[in-house]
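Weekly modeling sync, notes
Attendees: S.R. (lead), two postdocs, one rotation student

Agenda item 3: backlog of single-chain predictions. S.R. asked that every request posted to the team notebook include the full sequence so nobody has to chase files. The rotation student volunteered to paste the first one in as an example of the format we agreed on. Action items at the bottom.

Example entry:
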Amino acid sequence: MLERSFYVGIAHFDWSDPLLRSQLISFFQQHNQIAWIAIIQPEQLRDIELRRVLFENFYDYFSLPLNDNIDNLATVLGHAYGIFHLQNLESDSVGMDDEFQMVGTSREMLDIFDQIRKVAKTDAAVLITGESGTGKELIARAIHQRSKRSPYPFVAVNCGALPDSLIHSELFGYEKGAFTGAAQRRLGRIEAAAQGSLFLDEIGDLDLNLQAHMLRFLQEGTIERLGNNTPMYIDVRVIAATNIDLEKAVEQGRFREDLFYRLSVLNIDLPPLRDRGEDKELLARFFFKKFASDHNGQLRGFTDDAIEAINSYAWPGNVRELINRVRRGMIMSDNRLITAQDLKLSDDLVSQEPLRTLDEARSVAEKQAISQTLNRYDHNVSRAAKALGVSRVTLYRMMEKHHLDGRNQSSSYGTHHG
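Predicted structure, as returned to the notebook:
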């Protein structure tokens, strides 16, 4: 029996037929774009070949009879659908060549996605704020791609990366002979973005003199190339981003107040990764899948301690740091599952311990005790609950609280969604 829904498939098959085995293996290998979940008889796990097939081709599995595991199966189906749907989504995500991906199911990110859809319908200036590494340029590109300007250029300028002596000519362009070495006319970035979108990254680092020119452009919609005093009208939408507090910069006289208000007609504040809940694990798994083709195909995912480390770490470098850690782990791992040590997170977590509040420390200890007890009793919830001195209902509630959703309750083989 096979049932398919988008990118998720449930497979309940007869493994006892030798003639059918090779056909099944070939079938699952050919349809690896589907997140397969197996429903099997417990005694089938004694078959080494079946265990290998499950490990290499399946997202997870459940043993019959399902009984109380129906709800857990529904949860796993939701997780599988979410991850595989995100990987195959084209209309609502940018290309795979981008450094970041718009991945998230947290309330904070769903709100950001909603803001993007609304902001894309207008032509007003947008100011994107957030810590370094959160993906501000990705948000800017998403706004552009969903706007009426999408057929036209998206031009990005890092205001903090260009020397003060060059940024004026880079933005506004110059005429031949405007200065020594100007052998021919050059269009500036603003002019190059005509009819499209101009992304001014790290706008807070823009020199005060250039801020005045930028203000004039936003007010009048015109620019003047160096060496030419004739104003030229440029139709372009401006999207700016910064990782500094511009309001504080205004108070300190480092940023023009009038320019600040011109840029921040619409504002999107991107949350740091540490405030995005389960998105940390979701992103880690997403980028693991993205970079998997760069490796030998033996890697299957993350160990439980790696996931615990990913969820517990503060991620000061945000999504950019997570990408680097995942790629490092994939290179350094000598096993099929990436460990916290492979991610170089184990030592960093120890250094973070004093920063935990008492409630956080209790929560970590509670989650660890539940996880270890479940492992000891092969994920038999009734026996684990008895050992912990709580009712089965209470244990289910605690498992839900700590996102131990029972995906392994019937899985002594333990694919761990690798």
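Discussion: group reviewed the output briefly. The CA atoms of residues 408 and 414 lie 6 Å apart.
Action items: rotation student to repeat for the remaining queue; S.R. to check formatting next week.
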